[in-house]
Amino acid sequence: MPIGLFSHALRLLDQEIVRVRTSLIHIDGSADERQPLELPEPDGAIIQRKTRVSIPVEQYPEHNFVGRIIGPRGLTIQELEVDCGCKLYVRGKGSLRNKEKEEKLRGQPNWEHLNDDLHVMIVVEDSINRAEIKLNYARDQIQKLIDSPNWPF
């Protein structure tokens, strides 16, 4: 079947994905007003910092926090990583899509995080003065996604 038959459907699907993605990432509708993160000049040695943002699954069991953070096709988490200059990892119980696979992996080497509560791990490598700014900015952005009152699902 030639792809030309579905070109209009693909275009409409792509437009809808962009619309939903924009509403997920730009919570307050201020996509044009977003400013890039302003960082000072690097000062000092390169360090690695990590922090966790807990996800309140117990309080809101009906919400799909993992889907909200990762976004359609993983675009939300990718854009946050670029904006924040950090690596973001969804970890903990419920972070894997396949529950059976999660149960098999629990307790095995490199999968110890499955014993923890659901959280987002933020990892940044930069100079001391810039790392804290990036870490705080990423934490705030993740918290906005979690606390957003406009859950589309």
Automatic annotation (TrEMBL):
GO molecular function, one term: mRNA binding
Native source species: Euroglyphus maynei
Domain K Homology: 47-147
Example of a GO biological process term: regulation of mRNA splicing, via spliceosome
The UniProt record lists the keyword Transport: no
Listed InterPro entries: BBP-like, KH_1_KHDC4/BBP-like, KH_dom, KH_dom_type_1_sf
Highest rank taxon of the organism: Eukaryota
UniProt keyword terms in alphabetical order: RNA-binding
Protein name: Held out wings-like protein
Cellular component terms per the entry's GO annotation: nucleus
